[in-house]
Specification:
Layout (H helix, E strand, L loop, with lengths): L15 H6 L2 E11 L8 E6 L6 E6 L7 H4 L3 E5 L5 E3 L2 E3 L2 E2 L1 E3 L5 E3 L14
Antiparallel strand pairs: 1-2, 1-4, 2-3, 4-7, 5-6, 8-9
Length: 122
């Protein structure tokens, strides 16, 4: 979902089964580089989710608060079981999670403390 798209109403019911189907996991950014080919300013990320998931790549629209250099080594949270998408020829395999700040720029979600790569959010 794009931060500018309206979200479902907060009282729209979801079941625990809906939540259980999402695989939201922690991973560490091992590589990041600018993505000038993307329509919206973005950074290419390569994130290690440990075994058995391994390395996955993502395109993230996070250029207001982050640079490629500041993202390397940072843990992030991502949905790892959405189907891949092609973004300007780049295969984005996971959805790195964030929330908008007061101006709508993405602030990444991450664990407060270091956790094993692949740890599942519950």
């Amino acid at each position: 979902m794009d931060a500018t798209e309206p979200a479902p109403a907060p009282d729209t019911p979801a079941s625990i089964e809906d939540f259980d189907r999402l695989q939201i996991r922690a991973g560490t950014v091992l590589r990041a580089e600018p993505f000038p080919e993307a329509r919206k300013p973005s950074i290419k990320l390569w994130v290690d989710f440990g075994e058995p998931i391994g390395m996955r790549q993502s395109s993230a629209q996070v250029t207001v608060h982050y640079t490629a250099e500041t993202l390397v080594g940072r843990q992030v949270m991502a949905v790892v079981n959405f189907p891949p998408r092609r973004i300007a020829g780049f295969r984005s395999e996971v959805l790195v999670l964030g929330v908008p700040d007061e101006q709508g720029a993405v602030v990444l979600l991450r664990p407060d403390l270091a956790v094993p790569n692949g740890a599942r959010m519950f």
